[in-house]
Design brief:
Elements (H helix, E strand, L loop, with lengths): L3 H7 L4 H5 L15 H4 L2 E4 L1 H4 L10 H6 L1 H6 L4 E4 L3 E2 L11 E5 L6 H13 L3 E6 L9 H6 L13 E3 L19 E4 L4 E4 L14 H17 L3 E4 L22 H5 L5 H11 L7 E4 L6 H8 L26 H14 L7 E2 L9 H4 L8 H12 L5 E5 L20 H12 L4 H11 L36 H5 L5 H13 L3 H4 L1 E5 L6 E8 L2 E8 L5 E4 L8 E5 L5 E2 L3 E4 L4 E5 L1
Parallel strand pairs: 1-2, 1-12, 2-5, 5-9, 9-10, 11-12
Antiparallel strand pairs: 3-4, 6-8, 7-8, 13-14, 14-15, 15-20, 16-19, 17-20, 18-19
Helix pairs in contact: 15-19, 16-17
Length: about 575
């Protein structure tokens, strides 16, 4: 179902790439193959992707309108952030009805058409399941808070006021940082690890678990292909709520994540849902150790399929940015830990962080394009399932907000109030917010140079980045050297070379301060990846036997190779074959 424009663009993808698209799996036997290991995942934030009805908010029909574009990217899976009925306190991560579509996003008929359209294009759909908490507008919570003897009372965590103040628990989104909220209706406190409008569900109650499994079966019966479990490492709580020791904040996940019955719940979910459908499963968070992660995803555990850890995105959590050596170490140690068993996600961006090129690349006009291409080359040449976030295939950048009034994200707004109440340096806080805020990664998709970037005919719910006239799909479609067409070249290379999916990974020159180099090897097939993560030229000696290597991916038009040494330009990314 490709459009003629897409067919034309395929001809523009570097011929060297196409010439080397052999299929090593025909020569090398690969154990434990799975479709969810082999495809690239494209994450869509529906509110910001495409508005079809002129209300300034993206919707399901907008995604339907862009299915041919999504197909042209070469991705094999789409993960979409929540579109369920919701008051939208946390942009859909506060669900009030798990079986209904928020009217602003469309209807169930729209969803059915979207799912069918993806499947017709051989693209799988991954549903975002938000069941650590619900909205306080969900009927379960309305009933739960109505009286202490209501049948739904134990669907949530309550602490009677007569027992005194509940033991302190930290809330990620609360303006005061307190996860207990007093509710006068029943003179009790309820627990919320996120916003006060997002009360935590009580997974100790088997009725809650049954409700969740029924919801998941409802969507699996509709034909969804995978489930992404939001904040799931938090669901199991020690309901005696023991006091946390001093210094808990240094290892927060140790105390709030991987609770006492988490594995029991996942094994039960696997029995009740996953094992009965051809679906894959991934949970946000992987605990705080490799052992935690393996216990979640190793096949013999019968829990989840894929680990999704945060150590990579957490490398950039301040204005100081990151060090290349740390990036190498984190990716290499996770690859090593899962080289023989289990499977991991590969990503640097999602809806909870700012734009990848602004955090890990260089978003200045001079280096935005090459650094965006380098990051794509990196992510799509690592072992694991790559996740890419809408707009990253264009090199979309952070937006420049100057005042707190411009922000829509509850984490930013409440975090600002918390910092203010604690007497923080607010100028420094705003600088960090400008660099790291989640709203940076939620600005509308930049389709063309018309008003509002072609996202909507109305004023969008979040402003369009001012650079949309230069960075947009229409401008990059016709440019064979664009970030977009480099992304397509990389997905084509990965989709047709099993060595980039299942091949062994070996880091080279670990102490090189500018270049990240590694090989991927599967049987007789080899690829060498060279990435200059800096604004300065850099040189690296070629490994033995690579002197006559041929570049099949190159984000520049030339490569300096004298047979023993390669010289890379700023942010140059190269993949070579012997």
């Amino acid at each position: 179902m490709k459009k003629s424009l897409y067919l034309l663009l395929l001809l523009l993808i570097p011929l060297a790439c196409a010439e080397n698209m052999n299929k090593p799996d025909e020569k090398t036997e690969i154990a434990n193959r799975a479709w969810w290991k082999e495809g690239v995942i494209y994450q869509i934030y529906p509110r910001s992707f495409k508005d079809s009805d002129g209300d300034g908010v993206g919707d399901l029909r907008g995604v339907i309108d862009k299915l041919d574009y999504i197909e042209s990217l070469g991705v094999k899976m789409v993960w979409m952030n929540p579109f369920f009925e919701s008051p939208m306190v946390d942009n859909g991560y506060d669900v009030s009805d798990y079986r209904a579509i928020l009217p602003a996003f469309g209807s169930m008929e729209d969803f059915d058409e979207l799912l069918a359209g993806l499947h017709q294009r051989d693209i799988k759909f991954v549903l975002d399941v938000v069941v650590n908490h619900s909205s306080d507008q969900h009927e379960w919570f309305k009933q739960s808070r109505s009286s202490r003897d209501n049948p739904y009372r134990d669907y949530y965590h309550w602490w009677p006021a007569e027992k005194g103040d509940p033991p302190y628990r930290y809330s990620l989104f609360d303006a005061e940082g307190n996860a207990w909220k007093y509710d006068s209706i029943t003179d009790a406190y309820y627990l919320h690890y996120f916003a006060a409008e997002q009360p935590d569900l009580n997974w100790e109650n088997p009725k809650v678990r049954e409700e969740v499994y029924d919801i998941m079966k409802f969507w699996a019966d509709k034909g969804v292909d995978g489930f992404r479990l939001d904040a799931f490492q938090f669901v199991s709580k020690d309901t005696t709520f023991p006091a946390w020791p001093k210094g808990y904040e240094k290892d927060f996940i140790k105390y709030v994540g991987m609770g006492p019955h988490l594995h029991n719940y996942l094994q039960e979910m696997n029995r009740e849902v996953f094992s009965k459908y051809d679906v894959f499963s991934v949970s946000e968070g992987a605990g705080s150790t490799f052992e935690d992660a393996h216990m979640l995803v190793d096949a013999d555990r019968n829990e989840l399929d894929m680990a999704y850890h945060f150590e990579t995105v957490d490398l950039v959590n301040s204005l100081e940015g990151y060090k290349l050596k740390e990036l190498k170490n984190v990716f290499s140690k996770w690859d090593s830990a899962f080289a023989e068993k289990g499977w991991i996600s590969i990503f640097l961006s999602n809806h909870d962080v700012s734009r990848i090129v602004s955090r890990f690349g260089n978003d200045t006009p001079e280096y935005r394009s090459p650094s965006a291409k380098l990051l794509t080359t990196f992510l799509l040449s690592m072992r694991g399932t790559p996740y890419t976030y809408y707009g990253d295939e264009l090199g979309m950048t952070n937006i420049d907000f100057q005042s707190i009034e411009q922000y829509q994200d509850i984490a930013a707004i409440n975090g600002y109030q918390k910092a203010l109440s604690e007497g923080a340096d607010m100028e420094l806080h705003m600088q960090a917010l400008n660099f790291l805020s989640r709203d940076n990664g939620r600005t509308p998709m930049q389709w063309d140079s018309t008003e509002h970037a072609g996202f909507s005919t109305a004023t969008p719910w979040l402003p369009v980045n001012e650079n949309y006239t230069e960075i947009n799909v229409a401008a990059q479609e016709s440019d064979p050297n664009s970030v977009l067409n480099h992304f397509r070249a990389m997905t084509a290379l990965r989709n047709n070379n099993q060595v980039l999916i299942y091949g062994d990974y070996k880091m080279l020159a670990p102490d090189h301060e500018q270049i990240y180099a590694y090989t991927r090897t599967l049987g007789e097939d080899q690829m060498l990846v060279l990435l200059n993560f800096s604004e300065s030229p850099a040189r690296i000696a070629l490994p033995e036997g690579w002197g006559a290597g041929k570049a099949i991916i190159n984000n520049y038009t030339t490569l300096e190779n004298d047979g023993t040494t390669v010289s890379l330009k700023p942010w140059q990314a190269v993949i070579m074959q012997p």
